[in-house]
Amino acid sequence: MPAGSSYGNDGDLPAYGWGLTNLVSRPTAGANDLGPRDFAAGRRALLLKIRKFRPKLVAAVGVMVFRELLQCRNAVRCGFQPQMIDGIGVFVLPNPSGRNAHFSYQEMLRHFRGLRGLVESKTFTRGARRAAALP
């Protein structure tokens, strides 16, 4: 994106190979307000978007988003994941929400810079092992 871009340029993102979306699109006070049906519907919709638009990389903001998207119940660390979605690499970032104070500012910055480094290196699939199937 060009310098000075803001939320007002959201519609331009696809032209730069970027896209933004939510796992669950309805507003809530917090994740505790979401149930299994919300996540299942969101998972189906997001996986279909990923398959339709074929991004080079998926960045999940929050460990919970990654776990719900790929139905992964194992321990998850932020960073590039071994799981893929139809050959597309997945990078997990910490959730910067104030309600999610699991990471210091410096830790979050390190992970976001790690994503930037991965994008700049164009090595999105290195180390990935298995593809996620549609639920």
Describe this structure in words.
With 135 residues, the protein is α/β, with parallel strands linked by helices. 32% of the residues lie in helices and 16% in strands. The chain contains 3 helices and 4 strands, in the order αβαββαβ. The chain has helices spanning 36-53, 63-70, 105-121, and strands at 57-61, 79-85, 88-93, 130-132. The protein has a 4-stranded mixed sheet. A hairpin with a 2-residue loop joins strand 2 (79-85) and strand 3 (88-93). It is globular. It starts with 35 loop residues before the first helix and ends with a strand. Residues 126-135 have low confidence and may be disordered.
Question: What would a concise description of this structure say?
Answer:
The chain has helices at residues 36-53, 63-70, 105-121; strands spanning 57-61, 79-85, 88-93, 130-132. It is α/β, with parallel strands linked by helices and 135 residues long. It starts with 35 loop residues before the first helix and ends with a strand.
